[in-house]
Backbone:
């Protein structure tokens, strides 16, 4: 706020024709009132101008007043954010995972199809009852509505000041360790875990996003993130980058026979998948990359033989009962580094100087695979 000094004319006008004390007092008061009114008008104008600009820049998803972070009195919680199509097919596994935790240490939020209810008739674990958002939206996979749903989950979870870590999970994700291990792993790091790398050759960046999103800040990475509170706030409060993604980051539609020549135009579009770029790019634009562990905590196995399907790219392999045996799980838990081809970067997974397992979660697991995992028991790394 600018500080403006006004000098009162009355003070400088010392030499005056003698008038009676009463009249000069009234005159002086009048001048004070007028001066104050003018000053007030000017101040209001200045304030209006500067605030209408900063409101644009900082307006948030909702104008709800967020509670101040309350780290002293409450125990820090992990918010588990489930992004699902409808039900949670692996609820029985997660139920046993949460059974093993301390209810004071976590909270659960679910974004599902509007109107879907989590209760005794749809869900095998009471932890999920009534945990779906009331303001959920219809999500189209690969569209902006996906990142809109993520923002709704984060917004709701920020309402609880005890939530200090925010983990985004799909309906096919499984935990690889017990609750206590995952809790201390996440709490030990003061950073977010966000897989983020340069996306040089793929042509998903649309130059129309410039200059708000310069090409140098364009990032790619896995949708499955774990955030610290301040980064969750940056995402929920973003009112500038999200609309640009809505306009210019779109998935290229498949060739449609009925559309004829229209296909040529549609196929020229930049093939962009919002949820693989939005959070990474937004955090880079906010210069927050030194507060990240640039890796995901969620393991995915890619089917690299899928290259001929250019449009869709690689597909994650779904684990089933047969290929989710103890040896496979042990292999995944044993991974302690990740290689990023586009940056020639090897990311060692560390907790300070100690090497730790890279992955706490894995996808995509079928019910059979999850059942096998449950029968093996989700153990800590030390007793597996
Ligand atoms: C719950 O949180 C407390 C305090 O942060 C911690 O000491 C305890 O180990 C946690 N319990 C579990 C099961 O993670
Ligand atoms: C990370 O280190 C902290 C102490 O520095 C320790 O309490 C925690 O258990 C470690 N976490 C893992 C996953 O090794
Ligand atoms: C590493 O150790 C320092 C000091 O003990 C601690 O402040 C910091 O949070 C630790 N970092 C991680 C990633 O555990
Ligand atoms: C990988 O993709 C190919 C081609 O689509 C398919 O034939 C194969 O079954 C897939 N492999 C796995 C393990 O899913």
Residues:
């Amino acid at each position: 706020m600018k500080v403006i000094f006004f000098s009162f004319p009355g003070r400088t006008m010392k030499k005056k024709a003698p008038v009676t004390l009463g009249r000069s007092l009234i005159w002086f008061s009048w001048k004070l009132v007028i001066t104050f009114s003018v000053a007030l008008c000017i101040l209001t104008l200045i304030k209006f101008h500067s605030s209408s600009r900063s409101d644009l820049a900082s307006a948030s998803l909702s104008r709800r007043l967020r509670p101040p972070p309350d780290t002293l009195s409450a125990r820090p919680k992990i918010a588990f954010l489930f992004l699902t199509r409808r039900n949670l097919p692996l609820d029985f596994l997660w139920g046993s995972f949460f059974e093993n935790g301390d209810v004071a240490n976590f909270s659960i939020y679910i974004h599902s199809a509007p109107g879907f209810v989590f209760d005794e008739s749809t869900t095998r674990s009471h932890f999920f009852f009534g945990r779906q958002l009331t303001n959920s939206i219809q999500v189209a996979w690969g569209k902006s509505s996906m990142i809109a749903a993520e923002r709704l989950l984060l917004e709701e979870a920020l309402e609880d000041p005890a939530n200090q870590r925010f983990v985004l999970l799909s309906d096919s994700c499984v935990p690889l360790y017990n609750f206590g291990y995952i809790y201390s792993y996440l709490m030990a790091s003061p950073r977010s875990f966000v897989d983020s790398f340069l996306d040089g050759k793929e042509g998903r960046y649309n130059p129309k996003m410039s200059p708000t999103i310069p090409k140098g800040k364009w990032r790619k990475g896995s949708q499955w993130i774990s955030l610290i509170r301040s980064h969750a706030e940056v995402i929920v409060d973003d009112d500038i980058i999200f609309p640009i993604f809505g306009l210019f980051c779109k998935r290229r539609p498949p060739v449609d026979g009925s559309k004829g020549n229209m296909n040529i135009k549609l196929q020229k579009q930049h093939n962009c998948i919002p949820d693989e770029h939005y959070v990474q790019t937004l955090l880079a634009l906010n210069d927050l990359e030194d507060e990240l562990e640039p890796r995901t905590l969620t393991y995915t196995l890619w089917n690299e033989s899928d290259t001929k399907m250019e449009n869709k790219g690689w597909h994650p392999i779904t684990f089933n009962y047969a290929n989710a045996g103890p040896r496979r799980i042990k292999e995944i838990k044993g991974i302690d580094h990740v290689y990023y081809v586009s940056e020639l970067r090897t990311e060692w997974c560390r907790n300070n100087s100690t090497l730790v397992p890279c992955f706490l979660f894995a996808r995509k697991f079928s019910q059979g695979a999850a059942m096998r995992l449950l029968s093996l028991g989700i153990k800590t790394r030390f007793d597996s």
